[in-house]
Amino acid sequence: MPACRSGMHLYPVNGKANRVGADETAFGHRDAVFSQVIVGVDPDRI
């Protein structure tokens, strides 16, 4: 469920990141079009 302490970022992946082969660096998935980050924050500190 969406909440004020959660979020999602969607970043386009293009340009030079797509011009490098998947086996040329330690980072694969060079054919991806977007990169997603999902964040959930627990307000209770332990």
Summarize the structure.
This protein has one helix and two strands. With 46 residues, the chain is mainly beta. The radius of gyration is 16 Å and the shape is elongated.
Written account of the structure:
This protein is mostly beta strands and 46 residues long. The protein has one domain. The chain contains 1 helix and 2 strands, in the order βαβ. The chain has one helix at residues 16-19, and strands at 6-12, 34-40. Strands 1-2 form a two-stranded antiparallel sheet. The protein is elongated, with a radius of gyration of 16 Å.
Write the layout of secondary structure elements.
Elements lengths: L5 E7 L3 H4 L14 E7 L6
Antiparallel strand pairs: 1-2
Helix and strand element order:
EHE
The biggest beta sheet is recorded as: 2 strands, antiparallel
Helix content: under 10%
The computed structural class is mainly beta
Count of helix runs: 1
Structure keywords:
mainly beta, 2 strands
